[in-house]
Amino acid sequence: MQRKSHQGLSTEKRTRPRASRSQPGPGHRRSRELSGFASAMDTTTASTVPIPKTDPSRWSLDQPPENPTLLFFFGSEAADVAAASRSVYRALLAQQEQCHPHLDVMCFDVYEQRGTLDKILQKYDVRAVPTVLGFPARAEQPLGRVEGAYPARVGALAEQITSGTLLMESVSVQERIRRMIEKNQVLLFMKGTPDRPRCGFSQQIVQLLLEELELPRSRLATFDVLSDEAIRQGLKEYSQWPTFPQLYIRGELIGGLDVCREMTRSGELAELLAATLETEH
């Protein structure tokens, strides 16, 4: 019998979008915290490109878009955030004007339009600026996400949602999830990684498993749901549970942080983990 976490969206403290951590590499952009938002610092000089602001009421949370659509969340409050946002916006313009004339682009300023954007930010868990979400035509959920100043990735995302690549890939998402769960005796779907958790619930459940229950780190498999939007959305359907983290043991959904805490207090989780590790020998 599946055990499901009692933690819900309403119990999680919602904060302003947090900093996007760009990884070192070609065209590396430094990141830093700024007023609670993730800012991708563009080391190149960005020309002043005015970014139009879309009225948030134009985006329906209930009706999927008729055309492939990119939602662009940017910031104009500080120079470094604005520069990173402009570099991404130039990539959006290039895609729309030169490659995909039927691609819709909606731009939202998370600072100036904050009051009217809350429901959109919460539903799609937007915590960084700039962030681009990609919706194929008639898709209810984003099937791709780019966080940080990565214009090339934005171009690839536009190509995918207009060509239907991501939509076709989503057919196999449930199979990918099933295989991951079957392959790993103890599997935690979380936000971030054990070394760098990206939400309080994920950080606490990792501490519970590794420190309080003394589960060997090598026996805990994890998957960062923020790294793969298709898996993140598909897992909600697979488990019939909308929040993260989600802990699976021997193919069974145990639950989230609240359930794991309860099972730790009763001793049940420690017994289950011990029995699971014994079967691996």
From TrEMBL:
Domain Glutaredoxin: 186-254
NCBIfam families, alphabetized: Grx4 family monothiol glutaredoxin (TIGR00365)
MF term (GO), any: iron-sulfur cluster binding
Residues forming coiled coils: none
One family name in Pfam for this protein: Glutaredoxin
Superkingdom of this protein's organism: Eukaryota
One Gene Ontology cellular component annotation held by this UniProt entry: cytosol
Record region (Disordered): 1-63
Alphabetical list of PROSITE patterns matching this protein: GLUTAREDOXIN_2
Keyword Metal-binding among record annotations: yes
Protein's UniProt name: Glutaredoxin 3
Keywords: Iron, Iron-sulfur, Metal-binding
Gene designation per UniProt: GLRX3
Gene Ontology biological-process annotations: intracellular iron ion homeostasis
